[in-house]
């Protein structure tokens, strides 16, 4: 089953689907409280990422994938499956190039941030022989 990727423009339907995903997110790194529908709409409309996609399997929404200007890839799926993660990584790598390295600011290759609580995603990345390069702590 291959995935399809729909670039966020955004349309009202895309904003609604992203809100659904956010409302049903199990793991989070950066957001601590649920925004209002209006706050969410403003966030999406501000185009906060280099590129952002809704992700579908067999026309069913399964999550979103985004690329930030620090070359990090965000993968937020309702359920984490090895083939889906591989497809998302391949899609980004086949359609985008990492921005060049800036010492102490940005790596010159893509990387993925993962919530330390998302054990299924971490397990899949390790199985795919992806190298863990960092752990972050709030202080």
Overview of the molecule:
The protein has 4 helices and 5 strands. The chain is of the alpha+beta class and 139 residues long. Strands 1-2-3-4-5 form a 5-stranded mixed beta sheet, with helices on both faces. It starts with a strand and ends in a 12-residue tail after the last helix.
Descriptive tags:
single chain, 139 residues, alpha+beta, Aminopeptidase, 5-stranded mixed beta sheet, 4 helices, 5 strands
Task: Provide a brief overview of the structure.
By secondary structure, the chain is α+β, with helices and mostly antiparallel strands. The protein has a single domain (3-127), classed as Aminopeptidase, CATH 3.40.630. The protein has helices at residues 12-23, 37-45, 82-95, 119-127; strands at 3-7, 51-57, 60-67, 72-77, 111-112.
What are the segments in which pLDDT stays under 50 over at least 5 consecutive residues? none
End-to-end distance = 42 Å
Largest sheet: 5 strands, mixed
Number of strands: 5
Given the structure, what is the number of helices? 4
Order of strands in the sheet with most strands: 1-2-3-4-5
Which range best describes the helical content: under 10%, 10-25%, 25-40%, 40-55%, 55-70% or over 70%? 25-40%
Looking at the structure, the CATH topology is Aminopeptidase
Q: Which CATH C-level class is it?
A: Alpha Beta
Mean pLDDT over the full residue set: 92
Count of domain modules = 1
Spell out the blueprint of helices and strands.
Elements: E1 3-7, H1 12-23, H2 37-45, E2 51-57, E3 60-67, E4 72-77, H3 82-95, E5 111-112, H4 119-127
Parallel strand pairs: 4-5
Antiparallel strand pairs: 1-2, 2-3, 3-4
Helix pairs in contact: 1-2
């Amino acid at each position: 089953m291959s995935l399809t990727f729909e670039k966020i423009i955004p349309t009202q339907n895309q904003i609604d689907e992203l809100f659904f995903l956010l409302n049903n997110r199990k793991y989070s790194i950066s957001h601590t409280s649920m925004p209002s529908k209006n706050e969410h709409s403003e966030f999406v409309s501000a185009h906060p990422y280099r590129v952002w996609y809704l992700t579908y399997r067999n026309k069913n929404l399964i999550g979103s994938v985004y690329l930030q200007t620090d070359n990090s890839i965000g993968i937020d799926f309702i359920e984490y499956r090895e083939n889906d993660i591989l497809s998302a990584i391949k899609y980004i790598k086949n359609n985008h190039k990492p921005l060049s390295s800036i010492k102490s600011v940005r790596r010159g290759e893509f990387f993925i941030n993962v919530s330390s609580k998302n054990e299924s995603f971490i397990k899949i990345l390790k199985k795919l022989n992806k190298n863990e390069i960092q752990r972050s702590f709030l202080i």
